[in-house]
Amino acid sequence: MTAISYHASLNDLQAQGWADAGPFARPRWFALLEQAGKRPYLVCASDGDKHVCLPLERQGASLISLTNWYAFTWAPLHSGPAPDADLLRVLAQDLAHHSRRVVLDKLSVEDGSTALLAHAFRRTGWIVRDERCDVNHVLTVNGRSYADYLAERPGQLRTTLKRKGRKVEIALSQEFDEQDWAAYEDIYADSWKPEEGDPALLKRFAIEEAAAGRMRFGLARAEGQPVAAQFWTVDGGTAYIHKLAHRESAKPLSPGTTLSAALFAQVIDVDKVALVDFGTGDDAYKRDWMEQIRERRRLTCLRPGAPGNWPELARTALRKLVSLIRPR
């Protein structure tokens, strides 16, 4: 018999046998978001030893994915190899009594999340708008060595490594070190990147990943001074590139390129990963290192009987009509 429950804290879910589906689909990640000030709205269903939970939060009249800018993806928590389709359908049906609008963001296509969730909501009467929200650059290693992989990189990248690879000293670590992390934060503040979103959350995540043996951290120094830093993790055969930054003043040395090369060598030749994931965003520099692009999808699920949704439903219908009649 299926049991449905709603929770306001990840503490309520710790006893369940959740599958470990990567850094952004385990209870501890959502607990970190809760500790950072998010207010979870957890929608769960169980039937015997089968469990599914949608980690959501309220935003006005909507329920949206519980996530933030550091997450590459969002996915349901679940037992077993994949979320149970029947439990997802039950959750979608019950959510109609709690919200008129549900937005599920950063969904993967390759793991079936988008299709499973879209089907569950459509089957229970929701109108579902499925659209691309971002892209994800990845590298499938396919058994190559780092040397083989490097030989296939663009000529300009390989030339930069030959000319400037000896201009900085590289140090790689799998431990969390307060001084190294302080150096990363100082470099980031002196880089081209926008202000860090939640540095305390990122630091807590790094500490926990290091404790689990998953952290890969790199520093590049020029004349003894830190000029570039990168934070990666290795998790379930995938290397995730979370953060990278270099000082603007050190740009002529290309320290970030040299540091990236060292970390690619580490994860390919030593960690033997099958995939390298460069996260979301279509930054041009990612194309030098990555070889495939995957979509990230957003599902906007609307209850057709809710008057508050009618303007959005009308706009959606109009956009669809225009796309059908527009000359190709």
TrEMBL record:
The EC number(s) this enzyme carries: 2.3.1.-
Nucleotide-binding in keyword set: no
Keywords: Acyltransferase, Transferase
Record bears the keyword Nucleotide-binding: no
Boundaries of every BioF2-like acetyltransferase domain copy: 158-287
Transmembrane segments: none
Gene Ontology MF annotations: acyltransferase activity
Class of enzymatic activity (EC top level): transferase
InterPro entries to which the protein is assigned, alphabetical: Acyl_CoA_acyltransferase, BioF2-like_GNAT_dom
Name of the protein described by the UniProt record: GNAT family N-acetyltransferase
